[in-house]
Each structure stands twice: as C-alpha cells, then as structure tokens.
Amino acid sequence: MGCLEDHKVLRLLLAKRNIFIVLLLPILLLPLPIAVPTPAGKCGYVALLMVVFLLTEPIPLPITCLLPAILFPVLSIQSAKTVAASYANDVLIFVIAIMIIATAIEGTNLHRRIVLRCLIVIGTKPYRILIGLMSSAFLLSMLVPNLAVVPMMMPIALGITKELDKEERMKREKNSASGRKVSNVEIEMDSKDDNGKLTQQDEDQRQEIDCYYRGGKYMLLGILYGLNLGGSATLIGTTQPPIANGYMVGRYGPGSVISYGKWIAFALPLELVSSFFVYLWVIFLMWKVTRKTKNKNVYVSESEEDNIGNDDMQPKDGDKELDGGVKAYIKQESLKLGGLTWAEGCTIALITSLTALLCLTDMDDVDGWFALFPDGYTSNTCATCLIALLFFVLPRDLKQFNLIDKPTKYTSILEWTYVVARVPWGVIITLGGYFALGSALQATGALAGFQDFLSENLVKVDSWIIVLAITIFVSLFTEVVGNMAVLLVFLPIVTSLAEATNNHPHLFVIPLILADQMSLMLPIATVPNLVFVTYANTSTIDMIKCGWMVNIICLFFVNLFINTYGYVIFDFDTLPDWASIATTTMSTVTNATIV
Predict the structure, then answer these.
(1) Residue 251 and residue 526 in contact, taking contact as beta carbons nearer than 8 Å
(2) Residue 102 and residue 145 in contact, taking contact as beta carbons nearer than 8 Å
C-alpha cells in the first residue's frame, strides 16, 4: 500500500513538475545572491535560473527570456531602461526585417518555383531528385532563415516521395497480377488467399522493404541537411550569427561585428564542400537500401529467372528515369504556377539588391555604401528595413497600374495581416533575452574569475586544439540541450577564453556558431530539426543513423577551414584594436573584483 501511495505521489510530481520547477528553483538558488550580494553574484543567479529554465522548459522559451527584464531592475543589476534597450536593438530590427522578407518569398510562391525548376533542370532520377531538393533547400536558406524554409520545402518534398511510393506500388501490383514471382524470398502457399494472391500481411511486408519508400526518408533528411548547411553560409540564414553579433557589439563595440561579405566569403565555400560530402553519404545510404531491397524482393518473370545473378539483367532502380508519376507531378505543379509573375519578379529583384547591399558594406580596403553617410549612422539594418518596406509599397500585379478600367483596391506584395500571422515573434523576444543577459554578464564582470582560471590553465595550449575542443563539445552538447541554450552559455566562455589566451575573439566565436548549427542527430538539437520531424514524421533512430556521419563531416571541414582559409579571410594572426581594449578593460574589472 505504501509503495502504491509513493507511486501516486511520484506521478503527481512528474505531472506538475513545471510548477515545482518555476516555484522552487528561484528559492533553491537564493544562497548565491545572498552569499555574493554584488551585481556579479546577482547576475550569476539570474543566469543560472535562465539556463535551467532553458534546459527543462517549464515555461515557453520566449517567456524565460523575459526574466532579465523582470529581475535585473528588481535586483539592482541594471536599470529597466538599460535592459529594455537589449530587446529592441539594431540586430533585432535586422532579424525582424529578414523574417518579413522570408514571408514575401513564401507569399509569392517563389520558393515553389525555385524548387520545381531545380528538379526539372537536374532530372527526376532518385539520386538527382536528392540533388535538386538539397540544392533548393541550400539556396533558400541562404536568402531567408532556415526555420522558414522547412514549411516551404516539405509539402513539395512529401508530394514527391508520395509519388515515388505510389509508382513503386503500382509496379509491384502489376507484376503480381501478371503472375510474376518474388526471387530470393520464400513465400509459403498458406500465405496466399484462395485466388492465389499474396495476403495483406505479405503485401505490407513488400511495401515495408520498398526501395523507393525507404529511400524517401533519406531524401527528406537531405533537405534538413541542405537547409542547415545553406543557412550557415550567410549571416541571415540562421539566428545564431545575429545573436553572436549582438553579443559581440555589447561586449566589444560596433567594430567587432562579423561582416556579411567576409562571412559569406568564408562560409559559402566551407558549406559547399561539406554539402558535397554529405550528399555522397546520403546517396550511399540510399544505395544500401536499394541494394538490400534488390536482394529481397526483385520481381522477375519465369523467362528471366534463369538470368538471376547476371548483373546486366538486374533492374537498376537508382539509374532509372522516373517518367511516370514523379515527373508528371513536378510538371503538374509547375503548370499550376504558370509564368513568372510581377510579384515574383519584384521579390527576386529586391532580394538581389539586398544581397548586394549587404556585401558592399565597408570592407578592409574598400569603402562601401556606408561611406556615403556620416560615420556610425548607418548599418545593414537600414538596407534590410528599406527592402522590407518596399514589399509593402510595390503592387502585387500590374493591374494596379491600369487607369482605364474601374479602379480596384490597391494590393501590395505583402499585407501586414499576412506577415503578422507568419513571423515567429517569439524568436525576437528570445534573442532580446540573450542580449540582455550577455550585456549584464559583461558589465558586472561576472565572468572575471572564470577568465582568470582560463588564463592560468590554457595560455600555452595551441589555438587549433581549443577550436577542435569547442566544436566537438558544442556539437555533442547541442544534441541533448538545444542550440539556443548552448550558444547562450558558451558565447561568454569562448570570448573570455580568447581574451585569456590573447587570441582573436572571432577565432573561437566563428567555430562556435558553426558547430552550434551542425547538430543533426536528434530532433531537440535545433528548431529546424523539430519542425522537420513534425512534417516528415522521421524517427529518432533514422536521424541518428544518418546524422552521426553528417556531424563528423561538418566538424572536420569546419576545423580544416577555420585553421587554414579562415586566417586568410579574418586575419586571426592580428589582434584587433577593439579586442585589445576589451582585454585591458576586463583585466581592470578583474583586479577591482579581487580588491
């Protein structure tokens, strides 16, 4: 009886664990600010509270990130005005503008045209379909946040895999009806019904080992890898670079921002090379499935049975052009879109203009369009907001210019109600919370003691070893915790590590950003992973079986590029002035804390 009561209590605690975490955790952590009643100790208390909330998620992530706005003023860490500035800074407005532009691509169906055009040009062989889907996801994720690309890509991809499955089923049913039999698979007589046909159980088994059906899951995973790698190729493809840039500005000043041009010059070749080898890995898995299926359920006629074992006579499904359902489906979807519309053309022109403006900012030896304005008054946010604004100004079609016919209501490319319904506003609050916490950790010197520990123990360690350790640990940790929480925890650590070892901060921040995005084995690792699983219904086992090698491939090339090509692009050998000033300031804060 006692055991039963204990079991009920345990079930009650588990059912109400979120309430207990929210109520009890702040009380359990109270000894920290009481023992260390300085701004640094109080800031550490809020940081620990946020990290645990991020890991356990007793309340929604955006609401967790409102804690700095509540606790920093109450605990006299920072004023409410100072904290509020972190929730509406330059980086956040930039992210909002990029998300608005993403809704324009979806609203004009430009994403469907890009995907279908890639498939038509590349071809409809199964392995070519994989190229088309991966390259489309890669390209779209370079233009807009990859979180928005998942719902753009998955309906098209699921339609294609459904046609693959339907085509194979029809072929199997035709073979069965024509009296063909299955080689290398023994089917007992009692497994057939009175009409001599296979029972439903055997039919289900045949469909389960269908090479196209089983290969389809790898096609879908290829999309996930393509959009993660493509998103990493630009500063606007994921939320990690804006978070890092916002933190760097708060810690070091505007000069520490990673420029769009340098990032794409470094990351695009890296991600293209990684994508090629990831593609080969996914093809290998598809080939294994196809080969295994051939050995189990190849349908042959009696005249062909004698030729079993002759490779020339065996069907080569992977090399067969799918002239039936898949090609017809792609053509049908393309016909639905019709010709290129005015709205799509305007979207292409505006995104091209934005890309040019982002790349043509101030470089090391070249004056960009920033030089046209007083120093410090402009940023990439100005250009991004201008492009976003034009989507609400330009008409959706040319009929709006018709002055002869009866005038109609003016309709722009984007409508505000459409944007409000599709922009993930919670991401903005989440980023603001990260910026507020990072700014407070720097201002209060909460990490000063940790920096002393790093400087004493890692000062003689080679930088490439530190980069390798960062990428491996962050990638593994992200798989079980989630990339947002990991980035929040590790940004202060790696910047302090760079200062302690007298290295360029970007040398450690860039691999942190990249490794934080390349965790592809578990659904919880990234938000795109979670959204992908809801669409594809992919099992965790399948993600692990395919994703472990993808992680290894990506981490290998990140370390290779950062320790070779990265020195050419970012000049890691030279410590910039903004980093030198910050190091001196941190040393002063450390000495003051000790005193």
Answers:
(1) no
(2) yes
Backbone phi, psi, residue 61, to 5°: -55, -45
CA separation, residue 272 to residues 134, 200, 284, 589 (Å): 11, 45, 18, 43
Q: How far apart are CA 253 and CA 58, in angstroms?
A: 34
Q: What is the dihedral of CA 472, 474, 476, 479, to 10 degrees?
A: -150
Q: Which of 484, 513, 94, 494 is nearest to 266 (CA)?
A: 513
What is the distance between the alpha carbons of residues 388 and 386, in angstroms, rounded to a whole number? 5
Tokens of 579: 């980093």
Identity at 122, one-letter amino acid code: I
d(CA 437, CA 564): 33
HEC profile for 499-561?
HHCCCCHHHHHHHHHHHHHCCCCCHHHCHHHHHHHHHHCCCHHHHHHHHHHHHHHHHHHHHHH
Q: Which tokens is 381 given?
A: 């946010």
Q: At what angle do helices 126-143 and 211-232 cross, to 10 degrees?
A: 30
Q: How confident is the model at residue 554 (pLDDT cuts 50, 70, 90)?
A: very high
pLDDT digits (tens, 9 = 90+) for 499-536: 888 889 999 999 999 998 888 888 777 778 877 887 77
Under a CB-based contact definition with an 8 Å cutoff, are residues 517 and 235 in contact? no
Tens of pLDDT, residue by residue over 458-478, are: 767 888 998 998 899 888 888
Beta-carbon contacts of 574 under 8 Å, excluding residues fewer than 6 positions away, are 504
When mean pLDDT is compared over 220-224, 255-259, 406-410, 558-562, the highest value belongs to 558-562
For 182, phi then psi, to 5°, come to -95, 130
- Is residue 387 within 8 A of residue 353, CB to CB? The reply is yes
Find where tokens 């420029």 sit.
259
Helix (H) or strand (E) holding 260: helix 260-297
Instruction: Grade residue 299 by pLDDT with cuts at 50, 70 and 90.
Output: very low
559 contact partners, CB below 8 Å, separation of at least 6: 464, 467, 468, 471, 511
Kindly indicate the confidence band of residue 209, based on its pLDDT and cuts at 50, 70 and 90.
Answer: very low
Express the helix, strand and coil content of the chain in percent, nearest 5 each. 75, 0, 25
pLDDT level of residue 451 (50, 70, 90 thresholds)? low
- Nearest residue to 274 (alpha-carbon basis) of 240, 231, 236, 220: 231
Alpha-carbon distance 330 to 117, whole Å?
9
pLDDT tier at 406 (50, 70, 90 boundaries)? low
Paired tokens of 471? 């990428």
Residue 179 to residue 174: CA distance in whole angstroms: 9
Task: Tell me the sheet residues that pair with 181.
Answer: 300
Radius of gyration, alpha carbons of the chain: 28
Q: What is the mean pLDDT of residues 315-343?
A: 70
Higher-confidence position of 390 and 183: 390
Structure tokens at 443: 């201002």
Rounded CA separation 258/94 (Å): 14
| 329/34: higher pLDDT | 34
What's the pLDDT score for residue 272? 94
Total number of residues shown for the chain: 595
